[in-house]
Amino acid sequence: MEKMQLDADVAKLKLQKASHLSQRYALEDDLIKKFPREIAWVEEHIKGLESDIKTAEEHTVPNEDGFSPMVIMGVTYTSKLLDGIKALGYKQSTMAGISIGIQDIKVPEEKYEKAKNIYIVIAKEYGVSKNTIINIFDTMKEFPRGKLPKVMCVDEFGFSKDVRRKKRYPFVISDPFESSIIDVVEYRTKDVLSEYFEKIPRFERSFVDFYITDMHETYRIIKKKYFPKAVHIIDHFHVAQLFTSKLQSMRIRLMKEYKNEEKLKEYKCLKTNWKYFLMRKYRALEIFTNEDGIVEDIYFTIQDMFRHYEDFNYLYNAREEFFDTMVKMKELEETKKSMDFFVNKFLSSTIIEVQEIGKSLSNRYDEIVNAYAKNEYGFCLTNAVAESNNNYIKELIHISHGFTNFTRFRKRILYINASRNHYKKG
Length: 426
Prior knowledge:
Blueprint: H1 2-59, E1 70-72, E2 75-77, H2 79-95, H3 109-116, H4 118-126, H5 130-139, E3 151-156, E4 171-175, E5 180-185, H6 190-198, H7 202-205, E6 210-213, H8 217-226, E7 231-234, H9 236-258, H10 264-272, H11 274-278, H12 281-287, H13 297-308, H14 310-326, H15 332-347, H16 352-363, H17 365-372, H18 384-399, H19 406-425
Parallel strand pairs: 3-6, 6-7
Antiparallel strand pairs: 1-2, 3-4, 4-5
């Protein structure tokens, strides 16, 4: 027994030594390379700001209102007008429930065509055929995956629209603090992911402290087998989606009941304002409060609709109560008590949709508790970066009109990702 304990202690010491050496080498690398580069970048940035300040002072000529006008295409605009345009655009986009994403960025047609036909563009530049460029790219050194991060985000994206294909969702590993893509695996199936993580040394896998996913069952299986010590977190967005999907189904059911001449007004309200029925109450109040602090009538109409339909109102308020309580990030035991309260409350409800939410919360109890309990970073860890990387990948698929060769596609993603990281680090 003493020998077993001694062996265990030795193993722990070896692991701590390896961790210490790894941190030491990383610090030495930072001292030699990273910090001098960052200092040089900051110094250069300060010089640039000083130059910008000087230029601004030379070209700033305030008018009688104290604003310096701007001339665009021969038309003079004041700062007040520009601020007004910006505020109007923001207000209208917010009221419409519109958020800014990569799809909203308008790429110049010339650049779009270059990105879409990148092999053809390069081939023309060097006077060779498109196939020659593709062959050169294929023979380039295979890009290695990045090192598994301390906080690991995993997600998937649609590579094919063919619903008959079971393996149409590639698996992406992201580092949320570096906003980088660690690797892309061809399929998210259990056998493929098991084979992939089996090849990664256990020592490296042991450095992953947080494992953030959606509710896909395969991810839970992979975590238990390959990351047993990591804290498994269900992304906050997917918890919110549990409530949103049930509210949506209730709204549609209510619309069907109201689809007659007597309830036509209520039907139209449910249909045209669907985003606001799914929105958090405080957010809807922000949107429908004008600059004078007056709340618009549509807000009260929506709240009245909730009160007229008891089940809808109950679920809406249950969601408000759940998130108002859980996002406070209490200690683990306190978070568990709050979770127990909501699970029991939802499971005992007579409303089917609420019961289903209770079952889902119960099935993913630990992972959801981990999402809201206090952690060493002091804020909720989410899959936001993974979702952002997925949007980036989807945009690449879109402008390239799809890919048929996954190996080539993965290599292109990782080369672009490396280039982005190099640019960000200066």
